[in-house]
Structures are given as structure tokens and as C-alpha cells.
Design a protein that fits this description.
The chain has helices at residues 5-16, 18-22, 27-38, 44-49, 56-100, and strands at residues 105-108, 111-114. By secondary structure, the protein is mainly alpha-helical. It has one domain (5-89).
């Protein structure tokens, strides 16, 4: 008797996808697919909660969840990168204005107007 009897179901289901993984054309895809399936063990309790002998649907839902989490993380990372890029750009613009301008000026309609003495 196994300590986790339902884990054998998950293991068998993952093993049933082995031929699919083996048929992928690139080594990178095969390794990524294997890692993706192995990540399902992190959600074994949720998968086994469905209580079916062949948990293909919960397995696929787990895969979708992990993909969605990755997508959210990527979107957040891109947003942070964009905001940092904008801040750096604005900072550089302020520095350039400061270096260029040794005279008094006013800013009007997004333009700089120098004041003659």
C-alpha cells in the first residue's frame, strides 16, 4: 500500500503523455514538455481532489494554471521594465535640458523658450 495512493494515478497519467513528449521535434521542446508535466506534482493534491481514476482534465487545468502564472509574471516584468525605461528616458531628458541651458528659459506648450538678456 502506498502512502499516496492517488499519486500513482497522476504518475500513470503523466507516463501516458511520454510518447507525445518523445515525438516533439526539438530536444528543447521535449525537455520543456517533460518539465511542464513534472510540475504537475506540485499540484497533486488539487488534481487528486477531482477523484477520477484518469485525471486528464485536472492535469490539463494544472498545466493551464502554470502557464497563466508564467504569463502574468512576464506581463508584470515587462510593465516594470517599460516604466523603468520611461523613467530613465525622462531623467536623461532633464539632464540634457540642464546641460544645454545656461540661460533662463520658460517651458510653454512642451517647448523651451530661452529668455534673452
Amino acid at each position: 500500500m502506498s502512502l499516496f495512493p492517488n499519486e500513482n494515478i497522476l504518475t500513470k497519467e503523466i507516463a501516458s503523455w511520454k510518447s507525445f513528449g518523445d515525438s516533439l521535434s526539438s530536444k528543447e521542446d521535449r525537455e520543456l514538455f517533460e518539465k511542464m508535466l513534472n510540475d504537475c506534482y506540485n499540484y497533486a493534491a488539487a488534481i487528486n481532489a477531482k477523484g477520477e481514476p484518469f485525471p486528464a482534465e485536472p492535469l490539463l487545468m494544472t498545466l493551464l494554471l502554470s502557464q497563466h502564472k508564467l504569463i502574468d509574471w512576464l506581463i508584470e516584468s515587462i510593465s516594470k521594465h517599460k516604466s523603468l525605461k520611461i523613467e530613465v528616458k525622462e531623467s536623461k531628458q532633464r539632464e540634457e535640458i540642464g546641460r544645454e541651458n545656461k540661460h533662463d528659459y520658460i517651458r510653454k506648450n512642451e517647448r523651451i523658450h530661452y529668455i534673452d538678456d
